[in-house]
Amino acid sequence: MSLPPTQTQAKSIFYLGDNAAYARWRDAKLEGYPRTLEQLTVEIRTHDALSRSEQQAILRLCAKTNMALYMSQFETDDPKAIPRTLASTFGLTHVDKHLCVDEDGITPLQVSVEGQRREYIPYSNRPINWHTDGYYNTPDHRVRGMLLHCGQAAAKGGDNALLDHEIAYILLREKNPDFIAALTREDALTIPANVSADGTLIRDAQSGPVFSVVDGFLHMRYTIRAKYIEWHTDPEVQEAAAALHALLNEPSPYIFELLTQHGQGIICNNVLHKRSGFVDNPTTGQVRVMYRARYYNRLPQP
User: Fold this and answer.
1) Other beta carbons within 10 Å of 281
2) Which residues lie below 8 Å from residue 1, measured CB to CB, with a gap of 6+?
3) Cα–Cα distance between 209 and 245 in angstroms, integer?
4) Could you tell me the pTM of the whole model?
């Protein structure tokens, strides 16, 4: 499996002025790209330490695809043990202390009917369309690394879909490089201010690009939602946003669909992802719980 070029090579890849460098990177990226969930999955044998081979398998996948799936078969009384071990192993230490985060940075995503969490879709059973996490954050608080660990699946539904944001970039650039130019504008996408029902300002409005280059790596800031976001009115931005929307709604061999079960999870460089709606069954104990942790740093290179 070929790996993309290193960080020091990356700046010219993602800017439109060097098509030759981009073409070399694109070809290396697509060569041997995984096409099945099995090719993306690493088995973890203990909850408190990863073997050298497990670490390298995860890092190689994340260098290639920006994501890896993992599967564990053991039981532990601490549902956060695996995400905590993974974060520690890969140096994911700069925790995103968002509005509803737990003290340890690992937050259960489950249906909440009281408290602050009930105001937000991740703590409901409603579907969540394509997005990257932290799209409303300021530039100095970009979410670059993320963990999603399944504590319990729902009785029905709760499927995830994943798409490497570098693949989305390639597909858009191949259609029309002008789409990339439009989506790298600093004012391409604005998330309006978050104001509580009583008028309290929770978060200022945040404008920024969809695609940016951070420390030589491509970063994507995006949500497909139609409400509570503002795309720039420039026709080129509007056309690029529509093209990206259409791309995400087309069948693609690069979109991975999965239903995580207890002990399984995703570790990634904040790739595009979505979730279907789900139904819990408290009587049988089938209540969906996903443990999420978000970080300002990304996974290291292998």
Assistant:
1) 12
2) 31, 32, 34, 60, 64
3) 16
4) 0.93
**CA distance linking residue 37 with residue 69, whole number of Å:** 8
pLDDT for res 97: 83
Please tell me the predicted confidence (pLDDT) of residue 48: 84
Instruction: Identify the sign of the CA torsion 173, 176, 182, 188.
Output: negative
Q: For all residues of the chain together, what is the average pLDDT?
A: 91
Rounded to an integer, what distance in angstroms lies between the CA atom of residue 201 and that of residue 81? 35
Superfamily (CATH H level) for 7-295: Clavaminate synthase-like (3.60.130.10)
Q: Which DSSP state fits 284?
A: T
Closest CA to 267 of 294, 288, 301, 289: 294
Integer Cα distance of 57 and 12 in angstroms = 28
Question: In the structure encoding, which two tokens stand for residue 160, read together?
Answer: 């995830």
pLDDT of res. 302: 93
Q: Which residue has tokens 């290291």?
A: 300
Phi-psi region of 194 (alpha: psi -120 to 50; beta: other; left: phi over 0): beta
* CA-angle at 179, arms to 266 and 208, nearest 5°: 65
Query: In degrees rounded to 5, what are phi and psi of residue 114?
Result: -145, 165
DSSP assignments along 241-264, one per residue: HHHHHHHHTS--TT-EEE---TTE
Pairing relation of β-strands 67-72 and 41-44?
Answer: parallel
Name which of 205, 148, 173 is nearest 21 in CA terms.
173
* Identity of the residue numbered 231: W
When computed from its CA atoms, the radius of gyration of the chain, rounded to whole angstroms, is: 19
The ranges assigned to domains in the chain are 7-295
